[in-house]
Amino acid sequence: MRKKQNIHKAVIPAAGLGTRFLPVTKSMPKEMLPIIDKPVIHYVVEEAVKSGIDDIIIITGRGKRAIEDYFDAAPELEMRLKDQHNDTTLNRLREIADFPTIHYVRQKEPNGLGDAILRAENHIGNEPFAVLLGDDIITNSKPCTAQLMTVYSRFTSSVISIEHVPREKVCSYGIIKGNAIEPDLVRVEDIVEKPEPDKAPSDMGAVGRYIFVPEIFDCLKNTNRGVGNEIQLTDAIKLLLKDHPVYAYQFEGKRYDTGDKLGYIETIIDFALRDPHLNKAMMEYLQKRICS
Ligand code: UTP
Which pTM was predicted? Predict the structure, then answer.
């Protein structure tokens, strides 16, 4: 059995083309789309840090430099805000500077999520690690990644976050087949990438958080191009399943798929509604719109 190791490294893939958001993603990473005043990827990094991750590697690509600039220090801005005694904004900037050092590696071509994760192999080495997709925000008092870590520490095995998805949408997800061993925990038998609704083994879709044992890297290397001519993480998980147990956990929390236009709009509305400075005006506006 694998020796139990603390998970302190995370991979955040953010090298996709974001075609659903063209033309804005021609010159701007979709992971940098603003949720009011912070980009999506800020919340993803924050979740990792709150889960105890102290070593983050972001997979970037062409046109993604804005991500590195965002997490860099900004001494000129800090100086200006200090001169203006604008402590509130200064503290918000410092919050970003206080994130642990973030490493970057480029995926030369967007060959799929599986290929993006494989780019992190040298950095991760021979230890278990977390993966957080750069365009999925999950809110909960106990972060989703920390919930997966708890499951990992029980079984010392890979864990996939899952949620029920509407039948007509199973064709957008990796869908899990397996036996529930507890109400929110499934021992995975198989996973199918983007099945047709009538061929889907369940309605449990894999969403943007994972814990993997390092053997996933060999599986990724042995994975051929699949759906969409991309190296699919789902296909590598299928290989992993041959020799290693994999669990799927129905996490607590709300997931926002900001890579989808409607999901993005819902995220902004919900975040505005829970912002004490915006809540009242936002409610009034929504009520006015619904009634007009
Ligand atoms: P998506 O499939 O949602 O991203 O990948 P995409 O391909 O950019 O989206 P569309 O369909 O063209 O709009 C989920 C995450 O995996 C990353 C993306 O950046 C996103 O954060 N990804 C995807 C990579 O890093 N590399 C890839 O080759 C593909």
Answer: 0.96
